[in-house]
């Protein structure tokens, strides 16, 4: 059979560790004809891939390995060969790479092509990282447990086809159904570097096939695929029933695919049948007893059916084929409903422990019908006590009874049928739905679709479920074969057929068959167009679904049992897989699956099965009691869940090290040995043991590091390196950074370097530049009384200083000072600069996070003063005075995640210790807004604004509003002393008004108020209470983050769910008070009388709720936030004795809400503030302040990102965004290849940049756009120098040391004239000093214009050709790193024209007439000659 995804090789993975400890992942995919090299950063574990030919792209695997090993295999420390990458994560001190070292083609050739592989053997490759941050023993233990996760034999993947949906999928490979992708979090590092296909999409469950046929002939293939859902992962007693993601434990989608393999070029007929299995979809659990007694089953006593409707809604949405079937043809009727039939196999006899579940299952059906949420879904419950029936009637009659129950629903739901057409020319013959894609050479034609689904369950969805689903699918299997023309009738079947008189029934013909009548004899014959043969016999004369009416013995006598036993073998294997994943042991009571086998009838086999069941029972009890908690933790970490609990010190994304690879030193570093490399080895990981000895006379050592790519510099990592005397290493260091050499800003001055043993790593956090004014205003130095200076910020950082964020920093200047001047020579070790880089490749290509950036930009309002959400991201205002923009996703607390800007993190024991908040930026990944559109708060709702509703003015108005709020609380004469809660609410107002801590302090000092007097950290005098408050708030944040994770997961496969009226915190703002006549609580009634109309944005609405504790009516203002329900158990006694996190037993994936279901309060319901414990109310307020602080930090980072992109490609308009999406990138790539003519582009941003800033005219495209790739940007855009500038110098630092052969200047869309054609002079060097550069040539472009008319005049945008350009070729290639380009305008001196009468000349006669030249984004018309260009390309080879 022809495969659409044909390939000449299998995918190959080689993981190479060289002697220096560096790790390279060499990947050769079957879908590509080249090889990629992915570098694992040895410091942070970040994956690095630039997509540059000869650097990390090679034509073959051997060439890639030669590059990695430098041609010598002796440099390899270890080599691991694998077939697929399953995932990777950098977890603190280790990078964990999971690879499949051996795979089995379990379904070798699907219809239409594609092979399903089962992971037979896997390996965790543990990569030691030079991470200076220590990890606790608990984290290291958890990471070790993760590597013990059972992968082999229980996971599978397909490299070319989407198999997360029923066959055939309508979606491409890289758009899977997230419900069944188990390595989605583990594959994110590869998606982040633009290589999503390099990590396979991993499914958990079972996939295998068998060939079968009648009379020993191979006629068909049956494949059984079981996809386990990841929405409620866990083990037997920790994941039962529903969770807050609206999914059940042990939920599996099963698919039975049957097809007839054909020769190449022939159509392939197939059909599929889908069913589900899982635990009962209500809130229930079971407590395992210490004794051998049966576990006690319980059902939640509060809202046990919450989420049941959403569960069935997800099923209905997935299996709704009403419209598809109606569109197939005239013979199809549109189904009015989507049937979901639940086959409940639980014991429901009197006194049975499972009877309580049966009762609630039935009541849940009534509850769902009463909600009216599923108007087009019909849910039908069939109770069938499997064990009781087997005991009373025996196995055979139990099977017969099941068949009778399944007949009607199975016929109503049906199966899906179709053909794979090998060529798309045959699509015109299809009478059904057509499915095709880039991964298919042909197309699928679906003639009918299964509508609805049958769902089986027992208590654990294991043994009984596996048996019942087998016998149900067996009937379908026989019908599938019949419809494909494969008869499973034995010789005994003819007697049965005559006994069951079918009368005049005529079966439909299989696909590709035709019925005709012989013209001579009048007899009917049949043509098989698939094989081009004829026969007098009907290919499938049987009545459809006829075996549903048979007894067990009749079925056995009339059926060829070989295919039946092969199907049973698949179910036996699948049952063991599901049981092992859920319980840690194989399936029980599986002997019934072998009932059609001749060996199954003996008593010896039954006795063996009984003994085996006893053994499995004991194994399960042991594993459930001892191992389940560890296995649960493994699953959560593998899925990326609850990482804040399992490995809290690990950052969301590791930092990059741009000082490595292509980075360089702009000035040589002096050394006592003159022939050294000038300091380049100081930046190399291969020189980890280096001791760089400076001359003894050097009192100060300066290093100017040019980073390999622009970033926001976050950390400086120094390796202590000295000889016998540890005093030779510097004692202090100054750090300056900037985009250009002439604009460096001081970050750290006099940072202390302690004396340490040789090889010690010293990490120095680098905050952004802080203005001197903010430094003077905020902090102890600005206080009226030094003794009142604030101490340690236990609750949060009240005096946070906000440093500037710059993602275009390119140069880092380090100044080292010795401990004692001139006594001993200074010694240096390895130097590493860590930072955060932007996904420039995706931004230029409008892909991945880059595409998300433009979507956010396109929805932004132009008015910067409407609200914080409408801020113009490219405003030139100071960052501290800009309106903040709400980030895309925010964690429940700023204290759960690593500070990506500084690299600092919280103590690992954050639950039991006060939170220490950093001073720069803390919280989640601040670039995550490129991946999502809204902020998901712990309650799943989005915060719509961070400014006040009345904030219609810039910062000055916000300052005045803050002062008004303070005066309202302090009284008209400001004589009232503010308490803790009043100070916290004032901070909330400050953050909503978008004021920094420095802005606040300036406002307070202007009215004579000491900011320290309202510092919440100082207003709680009871230190014990403060400690308890911190612990409660931290626990609340963890529970809120778990709730946020579940809300995100619950949205998979469902429509957006409306949030609650009460948010997670529900903090009453200053001026808001209870004024509802319906409220019986009046918890917030104190400040309304004094509230001014301008401050009271709104009063409480007349709607009321019911407090579930006191059962009084309560208004929205007087309700406690929904987060209080998570901490409901905090009574006065419990709060005082609190010592840790909440119990996470039960269904752990749903957080404590899922744990101990009948003992915990769910998020549905309301609690008034009078019934809520005071410490919980304080914790809600504290958590809300922390979240607002984190939102502000993330918003500042987002503004910095927008500003950086604006400095590179300008401020795109909506027209730009729309038109740029339709650009032909293949055309651009072709044009670039023609421009380069076999050479390489050596000066493309972000790898290359300018050493100095360049003067630019107002309205011009940014000068950095001169170095951007050809793909992005609106074609008429170009760079212009300011009016009157007669010359401009560009100093370009190339991406690497290269052999440069010339420079290409792309002509601006306006073209050149004799007036603005510049003189071009080019120099080359490896050093930044002008006196050491070499002149490569000087060119007069006026002579070029004279000889080439195409360089003048406007550009014809309709022409699809190579852009207009001028190449300045060097006589000989020069090896260099820095290129100088000088553009100079020449003065016009000519006697041919009278300039006094210049205006009398016509446009055609005037050779100096200036064409209309506009700025790149609609700037003013320029009439004076000016310097301009569109792109600068430096060409040559590496």
Give the termini separation: 45 Å
Largest sheet: 14 strands, mixed
Structural class designation: alpha+beta
- What is the approximate shape? globular
Mean pLDDT level: 80
> What is the alpha-carbon Rg in Å?
36 Å
What share of residues are in beta strands? 15-25%
Low-confidence stretches: 1-7, 493-505, 780-791, 861-926, 928-954, 1088-1101, 1130-1162, 1389-1422
Please give the count of helices. Answer: 30
Number of E strands: 45
Helix content: 10-25%
What labels describe this entry?
1438 residues, alpha+beta, seven-stranded antiparallel β-sheet, 30 helices, 45 strands, disordered N terminus
At a glance:
The chain is 24% helix and 21% strand. The chain contains 30 helices and 45 strands.
